[in-house]
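hey so i finally got around to running the thing on that chain from the lab meeting. sorry it took forever, my laptop kept dying and i had to restart like 3 times. anyway pasting the input first so we r on the same page abt which one it is
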Amino acid sequence: MSLGRRPTTLPRLLLLSLLVFIIGTIEFLPVGLLPDISSDLDVAPSRTGLLVTVYAFTVGLTAAPLTARTSAWPRKRLFLTTCAVFMAATALSGLSPNYATLAATRLLCGLAHGVFYAIVAGYAAAIAGPGRSGRATAIVFAGVSLAFVVGVPLGTTAGTAFGWRTAFLATAALGTVTLLTAARLLPHVPPGPALRVTDLPRVARTPGLRPVVLTTGLVILGHFALYTYVAEFLRDAAGFTPASVSAVLLLFGLTGIAGTWLSGALVDTHPRATLLGTLALMAVSLTTLGAAPTHRPLLFLSIATWGMACTALPVCFQTAVLRTARDAPDAASSLYVAAFNTGIGGGALTGALLLTASPPAALPWAALSLLLTGTATTLLTRPHHPATDTPPPTRTTSPCPHPTPTPPTRKRTRQNSRHTT
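ok and heres what got predicted. didnt touch it at all, straight out
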């Protein structure tokens, strides 16, 4: 995935990816540390689990309006501010004396999270340059896959060994160090067109954008209806032991890294084919999981392809948003982020409701039905984005915010000298 000749491009994108990795790790830390948090704060596990749901719905409700209200900010300033708020709130989470304080700090993280993900892809595209938004998005979003494979397991291990508070504080410290590095190395990118909250409906009416957002919400809703309770599914329907579940989830995460890379290599040149192929791969995986959960070779293959597809989809969806809404990439991305996180929270609730009436073996079929509905939305929609990729209406500039004036020509200088002597 070549990103051009500028030697600073790849390091800057990797720096963004590292911040995505840290924020992704922090987002899902309560999942792995749920028993420790519940015991320390003396609250029921069900209340602790609500931290993830409330976090997701906070992002879904606030990402678009907050992004619109900060649209006039230069991208670097806004990016650093949201990261700083996120790291400070995470540190406060680790210092929380009770459940109410922890919930409030997680709410603050959710507010920063929505704006962060609304602008990070557009920022990466501006750094990478024209025709490379898909590859840039893949590099940055690889941090999400690494968070699942490395970040959350390491955070859970550290929290179990040294206390959940230590895990939060250590991750916040790592994020702060990375943020200070970003403040020095990331380029200045001026803001796009100023937007008001009342402009969001106009952005939502951008031809081709609503199908992308709708498909995102439906597919992620189905994915998290199963993924949130995948451990229950593997134990109950597939007969895995708790120790084996961890190995299966590791396989899921490792193939997810491959899916991110592969989608980034293809999505700039074949965006629609890459999206439809990824949706088809996920549909086949869910079908196999539902039809033959006890067939171990098929199950391992299905878990691997499911992991590959689910990490490729955000790259495909985000690239489609950038290509479709080229005049308002950040506002459009905020609508996408809202749909994505509403899908996370809604999927967790949907899976919980299903488990009260059905066995875990029913979860893949519910996920598949939502996936197919989203796929039908894509198939029935004619793509509206331009054939060639275009960057957002911002450009990478030098650290100096003021343009250097063009010196006058020699002929003009001589004329001025005659008038002044």
